[in-house]
Amino acid sequence: MSIADEVRATLLIADYASPDPQSKINIVGAGWQVTGIAASGLTPALAIIAVIELPARFAGEEVALSLALTDEAGELVQMAGPAGEPTAMRVQQLVKMERPSVPGVLLGDRVWTKASTVVYFANGLPLQQNHAYEWRLEIDGVANQQWVARFFVGGPPPGPVIG
């Protein structure tokens, strides 16, 4: 049985998110599904949050997380890289599964290990209006249709039709 078979994962989109030293995540404006485009051509600021939990026996193990942004066709969204070349919008990192630590409290194996990651795009993203997108989470190279966060980038309403 692989780690991905036992994981509980939560993926959220928010206006803002930041981890704190106690392994909590401070989140503002979480759970939205529709955004727009500013005059700059970018979405408003956004954060993608991934929280994974595994049984206590996985404490101390490292798990590979990948967050990828895909378009309506399921293709990776391409953004301009450092030299202007197209680069897939994917964030990957190893996270260590940690058990909560509460001074003076014996937790036992009933409390699962946890790891989380926050990716914050303070300037927004250059996405197309009137298109749907998905953030997809992979854990140790395994994807699951439950580990997605979908959103739509709306455009301005159509102007009046004259004539």
CATH topology: Immunoglobulin-like
- What is the average of the pLDDT values? 91
Q: What's the number of extended β-strand segments? A: 12
Uncertain parts:
none
Strand order of the largest sheet: 4-12-11-6-9
Describe this structure as you would to a colleague.
2% of the residues lie in helices and 48% in strands. A hairpin with a 2-residue loop joins β11 and β12. The mean pLDDT is 91. It has 163 residues and is mainly beta. A 5-stranded mixed beta sheet has the order 4-12-11-6-9, with no helix packed on it. A 3-stranded antiparallel beta sheet has the order 1-5-10, with no helix packed on it.
Task: Chart the SSEs and their pairings.
Elements: H1 3-6, E1 8-14, E2 16-19, E3 25-28, E4 34-35, E5 46-54, E6 62-70, E7 78-80, E8 86-88, E9 90-96, E10 113-121, E11 131-139, E12 142-153
Parallel strand pairs: 4-12
Antiparallel strand pairs: 1-5, 2-3, 5-10, 6-9, 6-11, 7-8, 11-12
In brief:
This protein is an all-beta fold and 163 residues long. Helices cover 2% and strands 48% of the residues.
Summary keywords:
163 residues, mainly beta, Immunoglobulin-like, five-stranded mixed beta sheet, elongated
